[in-house]
Amino acid sequence: MASKFQPIAPVELKSLLEKREPVHLIDVRTPREFQEVHLTDAVNLPLDRMEPESLPTDGRPIIFICKSGMRGRTAAEKSSKCRENVYNVDGGTDSCIASELPVVRGKKSISLERQVRIAAGSLVLIGVLLAYFAHPAFIILSAFVGGGLVFAGITDTCGMAMLLAKMPWNQCQTNQ
Question: Were 40 and a residue from 28, 81, 102, 154 both cysteine, which residue would form a disulfide, CB within 3.0 to 4.6 Å?
Answer without folding.
Answer: 102
